[in-house]
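ugh finaly. both done.
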Amino acid sequence: MLYNTQQKRLPMPEYGRGIQNMVDYALTIEDRAERQHCANTIVNIMGNMFPHLRDIPDFKHKLWDHLAIMADYKLDIDYPYEITPPAAVHSRPKPLAYPMKRIRYRHYGYLLESLLKKLKDMPEGEERDALTSMVANQMKRCLYNWNKDAMDEEKVAADLADYTDNKVHLDLEHFRFASLQTRPLAFSSMNNKMQRRNNKKKY
């Protein structure tokens, strides 16, 4: 028995070995007109395999490109479209540059650090006081999420002063942080609902 693993590797597996055999046969046809007619028939069959893709722009163009790929660009016919060259088909996109940014305290994140830099250059006034309150509360949340045991309002005030080069200070005697409200876990909430439902059934 001949297994697929023992046969030639398919360049376009989505069309199957039957279509590939047709393309291989078209390569053996000597008469150009008959070879052209065979290629047109193969492309029509390929299109019928994916009728839901017919509304995609350049669908026909893609089919002829796929035919050329399956024929290893050796099929001598009159293509109705300009075939995409092999270099463009097999080219890989350039890797994206990862935006490496140095963050002093990673648990605060880059966006919060950017706000702190802006806060440092702001003149004194109500606008700076409002931003200071927002930033300080967000720093407290970040510190709490990072390590609940390490969360300390005095540390938040010290980090804020450190970030702003001691230009902005929190008066902890008068400044009040927003309370941290932690939501219950979804699993625990679901268990509570099931327990209440079972209690109702008992009574």
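ok and the 2nd:
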Amino acid sequence: MASIPSTLTAGLAFLIASAPLAAAPQPAEAPPTALQQTAHVQPTSVPESPGAPRVSYMYELSPEMRGDLYMARKQYVAAIGAYQHAQLTKPVVWTKIGVAYHHLFAMDEALKAYKMALSLDSHNADALNNMGAVYHAKREYRQASKFYKKALKYNPRSATIYCNLGTTYFADHKYKDAEKAYNHAFAIDPNAFNHDNNSAIDEGSTKEERIAQNYYLARAFARAGQRDQALFYLRKAFDEGFRDRKKLQAEQDFAMLRTTIEFKQLVAEQKLD
């Protein structure tokens, strides 16, 4: 997961090597995710009288709300322009600017914005989490894990940050630590890894990392009795190149899953060793 988020919106890269961002606003109709509490855009009311002048509600919004609306539309350059006219003494505004740059893959600019947020609030878990995602994108995994751990000091109940920490550990080939971090995320929020999450940024990862992550998630969902999610991630592991028939048959977490028609059909489609 490197994905960015926590109390506002945020993660390293989950979504298999992608990072959810804290304080990244989403459209009001988007389903809530475990990654963040999104900054919802609330358009102002429009006069009901037919004779009333029609004024674009965009001009009735504050600069920060206009930025949120642009972010929801994925118009990141416009969002940055709007946020720069908002209250720059608010850490959340700098975090949102960082998220916009992050979506543009302008990592150095994102980092500067997150540091500005931290200069205003050194305990800002969202900014710390997002800095971890930047370092993950730069493949500086020790630095990334350092910032995730610091973020967890100020927001210890964030499933998203644990997702991101686990994803960084996977990227750093620390698989036992990765599973521990993912286990914490599952314990906090069983829906933390739902594949319908759309709040992540693809950071890229190796084939080995993606197999390890997908296979682990298939096991975790199977253990939790979430069959559809388990099959989803198992298929992703197959698609990435998992071919170990013996490991699959010996896996205790798949004991119940192996009895289902869906599992048998999925395995029958593969050319396993």
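summary for the 2nd one i guess: The two ends are 28 Å apart (CA to CA).
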